[in-house]
Amino acid sequence: MMVDLSGNGAVSPGHTRHGQGSGNTGKKTSKKSRTKRGKRGRKRRNKKNIRNIRTPPPYFPPEAEEGNIEYKLKLVNPTQYRFEHLATQLKWRLQEGRGEAVYQIGVEDNGLLVGLSEADMRASLKTLKRMAEKVGADITLLREREVDYDLDRNTRKIAEVLVRKVPDDQQFLDLRVAVLGNVDSGKSTLLGVLTQGELDNGRGRARLNLFRHLHEIQTGRTSSISFEILGFNSKGEVVNYSESRTAEQICESSSKMITFIDLAGHHKYLKTTIFGLTSYCPDFAMLVVSANTGIAGTTREHLGLAMALKVPIFIVVSKVDLCSRGTVERTVRQLERLLKQPGCNKIPLMVSGADDAVTAAQQFTQSECITPIFTLSSVSGESLELLKVFLNILPPLSNSKEQEELMQQLTEFQVDEIYSVPDVGTVVGGTLYSGVCREGERLVVGPTDEGRFLRLKVGSIQRNRSACRVLRAGQAATLALGSFDRSLLRKGMVMVSPKMNPTICCQFEAAIVLLFHAKTFRRGSQVTVHVGNVRQTATVECLHGKDELRTGERAVVRFCFIKHPEYLRLGAKLLFREGVTKGIGHVTRLLPPSQNHDQNQNHDQNQQEH
After folding, report:
1. What does pTM read for this prediction?
2. How far apart are CA 311 and CA 347, in angstroms?
3. Cα–Cα dist 607/598, whole Å
4. Most exposed of 64, 238, 390, 427 (fewest Cβ within 10 Å)?
5. Could you give the CA distance from residue 505 to residue 451 in angstroms, rounded to a whole number?
6. Which residues, 6 or more positions from 516, have their beta carbon under 8 angstroms from its beta carbon?
């Protein structure tokens, strides 16, 4: 007789769970039981993955020759020759990490965690401090961990140390973080608390300094893109406006800057949010979710946008002071379920202590699937320090080699904002995509509605509201253009070197995937296309090899801008939308204006023949 045990399948008499004895057990196992076992197996695997991230293995991966991480077994009383060699090595690691390096003390080059005694560890840290002083840097002890191999009774430790350059000539490390989340989730309030250094009063006082328009103050809702800065000095201490500093003083005192791009949460301002994500090239995205409302409104949409544009994302659950522990846990479980879904395939990592924050910062940039989750309050200040630790340690995505390669290319500056400033004249804001830009440099800007480029001269340059002499690839800044006519400029233009032969087009082809469409996507459809800082309505001219597209299908599509030509780059990420229609892809081919007329004639002839 077969006995069915809940969730364990059928077990026959004399047959144990360890497979001893005889009996045919697998044939009559119900489908439901197998499904339960599969779910439990997945849960165990997910728990195992999270446990593997949290608990350090007895060894690290072998040391890489490139990158900013260095393993050192010990640094006890080196000779002068050895000390000079070590200082040169540190300089190389700092250069690789764009001003930051991480030293693992007590670890062999092959990654084995050996550990050091208390006396050797003190001597090693002292030597590392001398090395840092020689190259103009400071050290911060991130964490110490005990290593136990049962070899002796003495405690042996390994130490993780952050080495950071003292700021010089304004060349601080700058990371851009886009702030996403549903309306009323507490985005602007959190930024106000981080950048002003004062907790909120529970009624939105902290966010008032961030708003740019009267209607934003009246409604409490962000409708435009604003930028806020948070600095960290070479010792890892926070530098913000709390001590009545100006933006210029914050830049001067900081070795690392976090520039927050505060985006709108309301669905009405979705086009502004998309422009912020595509145009300002954020390194990371911070998704803010209110603990008391959970996943609501535009939360899923913002998460999807960041993932479509391949921006690494971490999550902050705010307003934990307003609700019970059970409500917070329910919101976190909702987020974990969402992140583990097939479309996301993320591994959520709850940050509940300083050690978790250090691990999260390092794993976050090394693995695409790790998503740290913070739970905090802008009113009580609960767990706010953990977020600051995370932001302080967060390494840049690109290394110095990639940065150098971009700087060797010709100058290309994306125009994202245009202003008229009294006594200064026309000012443009944006990001330098490649090359180097200096005060007094002569560039050309375009394309105009006729497809031409106009000559201009760069006056003064400002980064984060402080004067700057040289702008390098990847940095955001504002450029004064003096008496240049503002009416000739528009968002989406580029300022490039006169040596460059910029390719402009009215038509282009892109390989796309249709994420959602209510009916079918076919020739003649009109959508708003976002490519970098370009945002314009385009018509679908043709779908190669297909008559129409449905949700989830892929195709190569030719688009035609309806107003004026644009400057595009091959391979650039593309995002298009119209109402509920959404799609992503990349540019595969540019059609110069001379070819557009011929292509249209050939296409019309083909249509008539069919």
Report:
1. 0.81
2. 16
3. 14
4. 64
5. 8
6. 551, 580, 581, 582
